[in-house]
C-alpha cells in the first residue's frame, strides 16, 4: 500500500476531530503565513481576497471533497486509487506525484529563511534584521541561504528518516493554537498603528481596476497550494477516514481553519506594509521577512515576540515540509520499489539539485540573472507547480469525476451510513462545468501572459 507510512501505525483517524486536525495540519504552513499575504499584496489586495474566497467556497470545496471521497471510497492513496477507479486514469496519480517533488526543494529554501530569522531574533539582533536592505543582502549572499536551506532540509530529513511523527503531531496540537493567537495579537497591534487603515482598505476593499486574469490564476494556485490539493495528499488522508464521519462538514472545518489563518496573516502583514514608513514597498516572496522585523522593532517587547513568532512559523513550516518529504519518499519508494533509506537519499539528492539553484536565484544572488520565462529559479518552480501543474491535475481530476466516474458515485460515498451531503448540486455543477471551464480559460490566459504574448 502506498503513502501509508505516516499514518500506518494509527490505522484510521479516530473521528472527525482527528481527521480535521490532521488535514489542517498539512494545510496550514508557509502557504498561509508567507505566501498568501505576499500574493494578496501583489495581486491587488481586496480583489485578490474576494476572488480567493469565492474560489474557496466553490472550487476549493468541491475539489477537497472530491479528493477525500476518492480516498475514502477506494481506501487507497493517489496512484493506486485512480488505477482502481479507472485504469486509463492511473497517469493522473503519477502526474500529481510530480508536484510535491517540485515544491519540496524550494519550500525548504523558504523554511531556511524562516530559521535564519528565528536565529537572528534569538541572538538579539532584531535591529539588524529590521534595517533596510538586510533581507536583500541575506538572500543575495552566495553561502548563507544555502547553509540555512541545508539545515532546514537536514532537520526535515532526520525526522522523516527516524519518523518521530507522533511527537510532532502532539506538539503541533499545542503550537498551532499558539500560532493562531500570535497572528491575531500581531494583527491587532499592526491595526492600531497610524497609517495601517490605508492598508486595511487596500486589503479588504476590492478595487476592480486591479483585476487581471493572473489574479484568478494566482488565487487558484494559492488555493490548491494552501489546501494541499491536486497532489494526492487529501486522497491519502481520505483513505484513513471512517465511513461514519461527515465529509461535507469536515471540509468546511478544514477550509475555515486554513483560510482563517491565511486571512489573519494578510491582515497582519499587508497593513504593516502601509504603516511602516521607509519600507521599499516590497512585493514578492520577501514581504514577510522585510515588513515584520520592522513591525517587531517598533513594538514594545518586540525582540521576544519576534523570536516566538518566527519560531512558530518555523514550526508550521517544518511540520508541512515533513509531510511533503514523507509524501515524496513514499512515491519514490513505491515507484522504484526501493527501501526507505535509499528513497530518502534519492529525495535528498533531488532536493539539493533543485534547492541550491533556488537558494541562489533571489535578490542579487549569483543565479539571479538566470531567468526562465521571466522568473528566477525559485519563482519558476513555484509558478510551474502552483500555476501550471496543479491546475492541470485539478482539471483532469474534474473531467474524470464529472464525465467518467460521475459525481453521483462520490455523492453516494459522502452519504454513506446516513450522512448528509447538502451541496450536491454545487458539487456537481462545479466539478462538471464551472471548474473545467474556468481552469482552461485562466490557464490559457496566464500562460500567454507569462510568456509575454498577451498583456492584459
Ligand atoms: N499546504 C501547505 C502550506 O500551506 C503546503 C503544502 C502543499 C503541503 N502541499 C502539501 C504540505 C502537502 C504538506 C503536504 O504551506
In short:
Helix 8 (about 145-160) packs antiparallel against helix 16 (about 340-360) and helix 11 (about 215-225) crosses helix 19. Helices cover about 75% and strands about 0% of the residues.
Task: Provide the fold topology.
Blueprint: H1 16-27, H2 30-42, H3 46-74, H4 78-85, H5 90-122, H6 126-130, H7 134-140, H8 144-162, H9 165-191, H10 196-204, H11 213-226, H12 233-239, H13 247-275, H14 287-298, H15 302-336, H16 340-360, H17 377-405, H18 407-414, H19 424-450
Helix pairs in contact: 1-13, 2-11, 2-13, 3-10, 3-11, 3-12, 3-13, 3-18, 3-19, 4-5, 5-8, 5-15, 5-16, 5-17, 8-15, 8-16, 9-13, 9-15, 10-13, 11-17, 11-19, 14-15, 15-16, 16-17, 17-18, 17-19
The chain binds tryptophan.
Residues 26-27, 29-32, 225-226, 228, 231, 233, 320, 323-324, 327 line the site of tryptophan.
